[in-house]
Amino acid sequence: MSFRGGTSHRSERIASVIKRDVSVIVDSLSDPRIRGVSVIDAEMSRDLKYATVFVAIDGDDKSVLAALNGSAGYIRRQLAETNSEMRGVPRLNFVIDKSQAYYERIEQVIKGFHEDDEKHDG
C-alpha cells in the first residue's frame, strides 16, 4: 500500500494489487538479468494511467533496473491477463526504492552518537 502521498482509496487498492502481482510476475521472469529484485511499493498517478513501482535490488542496480523497465510492457500485459476486472492497466515505471538506504543511514548515525556517548562516559 502506498503511503508516499495523498491518494484515494481506489488508488491505494490498485497500487496494492499492482505491488502484489508485479512481485509475482517479476519472480517468474526467465530473464537472467532480473535477479534479486524485491517489489517494495507501488504508487499510482492521479489519473491511474501510470504506476511507479519501487524496487530494492541486490547487485548492479542500473543494469537490473534497465532490464526491468525494458520488460515493463511484458509485465503490463501479464498484469492485464491476471486482472481482467481492472478497467485499464497502468503503464509501469520501475525505480529504486531509496527509503531502505535512508533508514539504514539514519540507524548508522544514531549508533555513532551512542558510541560517542559511551566513549565520553567511560
Describe the protein in words.
About 50% of the residues lie in helices and about 20% in strands. It has about 120 residues and is α+β, with helices and mostly antiparallel strands. Strands 1-2-3 form a three-stranded mixed β-sheet, with helices on one face. Strand 1 (about 35-45) and strand 2 (about 50-55) form a beta hairpin. Helix 1 crosses helix 3. It is elongated.
Beta-strand percentage range: 15-25%
Helical fraction equals 40-55%
The helix tally amounts to: 4
- Side-by-side strand order of the widest sheet: 1-2-3
Structural class: alpha+beta
Estimate the global geometry from the Cα principal axes: elongated
| Overall number of strands | 3
SSE topology string: HEEHHEH
- Distance between the terminal alpha carbons, to the nearest Å? 45 Å
Gyration radius, rounded: 18 Å
What can be said about the biggest beta sheet?
A: 3 strands, mixed
Mean pLDDT: 86
Unreliable segments of 5+ consecutive residues: 1-5
List key phrases describing it:
alpha+beta, 52% helix, elongated, disordered N terminus, 4 helices, 122 residues, 3-stranded mixed beta sheet
Short characterization:
The chain is of the alpha+beta class.
Architecture blueprint of SSEs:
Layout: H1 9-28, E1 37-44, E2 50-57, H2 61-70, H3 72-82, E3 91-96, H4 99-121
